[in-house]
Design brief:
By secondary structure, this protein is an all-alpha fold. It has two domains: 4-154, Up-down Bundle (Ferritin); 159-317, no CATH class. Helix content is 77%, strand content 0%. The relative contact order is 0.09. The mean pLDDT is 84.
């Protein structure tokens, strides 16, 4: 790996050309990944990509005048001192804050590179171009750092926050809520049927645990295979499936855990209390994220839970 001070002017210009090309492609990936959900930020990265392309053309033009048409391949990872960034631009969905921070860091590094390169160059035309590019990168750096403030003033951040909230609801809340409801309600019948049939807390715990895990696996696969997310915008199917399956299992285990208590009567009272806490939590989540009136959400969830709960007790006592 080369030291920066050992680079010739020819190699510095070649490195600048490859760096501008890489940055332009990264900003293009940022714009593409954010276009659907954060159009204002995507438009900013599109403009930055175009400006990086202009920088590259100016560098190539100067290089050809000085050194001819052949440009040696030298990249940032061939030279000491450059940061190796995590390729967040390949991740979908893109995290907005992560993208902003990485863009600011990239522009700061490029500005420092041009400033050092200008100091190291002895050619006046090379020094002038590198100094001009350093100043433009300084503007990009300030733009990336102040993007959040500008969007708050213009109202674009509010729109993007709303888009982020919609994505969170589609990709996390909806599958998680479906799993939590299924796990909290569907496992009531087998758990309390086993509890009242055997009057044995260990047997009830094993039945509840098996029902919770089985329901979690079933719901996870059902959610993951329901759609691939390309048309609905609901995100990666296996992520949704994992969230749904996990919340289903947790919903069932919540009122199963009290049966680790050896006293049957106490364990049952605690389990019933946990059930009401779970149903209240589900009603609250439906009210907050699904805009369901709290009274309506409570009636729907609690009524269903009570019916399943009573069915389990009746079956267990029969």
């Amino acid at each position: 790996m080369r030291r920066f001070k050992s680079l010739s002017e020819r190699e510095i210009l070649a490195l600048a050309i490859s760096s501008e090309e890489d940055d332009a492609r990264i900003y293009g990936d940022f714009a593409e990944g954010l276009r659907e959900t954060y159009p204002a930020t995507a438009a900013m990265f599109t403009r930055m990509r175009e400006e990086e392309a202009q920088h590259r053309h100016r560098l190539i033009e100067l290089y050809r005048k000085k050194f001819g048409d052949h440009i040696p391949l030298i990249r940032r990872n061939d030279v000491q001192g450059f940061v190796k960034y995590r390729p967040v631009w390949t991740i979908r969905p893109l995290g907005l804050d992560v993208v902003r921070k990485q863009a600011a860091a990239m522009e700061a590094e490029t500005r420092r590179f041009y400033e050092r390169a200008a100091q190291q160059s002895a050619d006046a035309s090379v020094r002038q171009l590198l100094g001009d590019l350093a100043e433009q990168e300084r503007h990009h750096e300030a733009l990336a750092e102040s993007l959040e403030e500008q969007q708050v003033k213009s109202g674009e951040r509010r729109e993007e926050d709303e888009a982020r909230r919609r994505l969170f609801v589609l990709q996390v809340v909806q599958p998680g809520l479906a799993g939590l409801m299924d796990g909290s309600v569907s496992t009531l019948a087998p758990l309390f049927a086993a509890a009242f049939a055997t009057q044995n807390t260990s047997d009830a715990f094993r039945v509840g645990l098996a029902a919770s895990i089985g329901a979690g696996i079933s719901m996870g696969f059902a959610e993951a295979l329901s759609d691939d997310g390309t048309l609905t915008g609901r995100g990666h199917p296996w992520l949704r499936g994992f969230v749904c399956g996990l919340m289903t299992t947790l919903g069932g285990i919540g009122h199963t855990m009290p049966y680790l208590i050896h006293n049957f009567r106490l364990a049952t009272y605690v389990a019933i209390a946990v059930v009401f806490v779970e149903l209240a939590a589900i009603s609250s989540i439906r009210n907050k994220y699904m805009d369901t009136p709290i009274a309506s959400a409570a009636i729907q969830v609690v009524l269903g839970g009570i019916l399943v709960f009573v069915s389990g007790i009746l079956i267990g006592k029969s």
